Amino acid sequence: KDVVFMASHGVTVVGQSISWAFDDLYYLERACMHQVIATQAAAGKPLRLIPESMCRATAAQIAGERQQSDLFFESIKRMLDRDHKGWRH
Known about the structure:
2 strands, single chain, mainly alpha
């Protein structure tokens, strides 16, 4: 349980490493964004839910794929080094 939604306080994400926590927070934010867009696009109609079996299969595919978390975080730091010199200080 690495993500906590706190009423009136936002979200807290923890992880085994900063890169893992960042990755979880990044994709959580993306999922929330897509939820808002889908809700707006539905114009009041109920959204169709993804079948539970598909959710489980997708979760199983990505479980344990933490190398990409480290690579993604390193790429973000390289972009910051390139575009925002001094961000580390």
